[in-house]
């Protein structure tokens, strides 16, 4: 198996992916009139934030699952010379494995505590030994390896 990817590079790759998909989420929620909050005088409407969260979750999960299944890497990982591999054999993960990985990462991100969950889930790789796995990697039994 190739060497494990550096956690700092993983973080930058995740930021790139979050920005790319985030732009699409923003455009779709703007086009459909689904905003995080609407404030009108003394009335605050938060019901539409569920719609925005749903759109975000679906797009992030679809992006990660499609890219990882087809190419073994997202655009951020490709640009930073990394890919996701099965822990047991180094192969490109299956659709099911990628779905598990994406659900653990993106559902709490979209519906609960975006920045905090991302920091905990991905930040886990900074302290995890010996495989530098994030929580989503542990759930899916994957690792991120260098392609250099």
From TrEMBL:
One cellular component (GO) term of this entry: plasma membrane
Q: Report which superkingdom the organism of origin falls in.
A: Bacteria
Chief location category: membrane
Keywords from UniProt, A to Z, are: Cell membrane, Membrane, Transmembrane, Transmembrane helix
Q: Has keyword Cytoplasm?
A: no
Its transmembrane ranges are 12-33, 53-72, 103-127
Q: Where in the cell is it found?
A: Cell membrane
Boundaries of each RDD domain copy? 5-141
Protein's UniProt keywords contain Cell membrane? yes
UniProt-listed PANTHER family: MEMBRANE PROTEIN (PTHR36115:SF4), PROLINE-RICH ANTIGEN HOMOLOG-RELATED (PTHR36115)
Task: Name it.
Answer: RDD domain-containing protein
């Amino acid at each position: 198996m190739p060497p494990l990817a550096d956690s700092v590079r993983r973080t930058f790759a995740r930021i790139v992916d979050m920005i790319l998909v985030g732009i699409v989420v923003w455009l779709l929620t703007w086009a459909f009139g689904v905003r995080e909050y609407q404030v009108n005088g003394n009335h605050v409407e938060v019901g539409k934030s569920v719609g925005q969260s749903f759109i975000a979750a679906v797009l992030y999960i679809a992006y990660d699952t499609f890219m990882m299944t087809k190419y073994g890497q997202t655009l951020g990982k490709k640009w930073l010379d990394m890919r996701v591999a099965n822990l047991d054999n180094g192969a490109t993960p299956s659709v099911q494995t990628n779905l598990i990985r994406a659900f653990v990462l993106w559902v709490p991100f979209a519906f609960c505590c975006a920045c905090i969950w991302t920091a905990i889930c991905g930040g886990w790789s900074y302290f995890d030994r010996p495989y530098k796995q994030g929580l989503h990697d542990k759930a899916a039994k994957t690792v991120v390896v260098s392609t250099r």
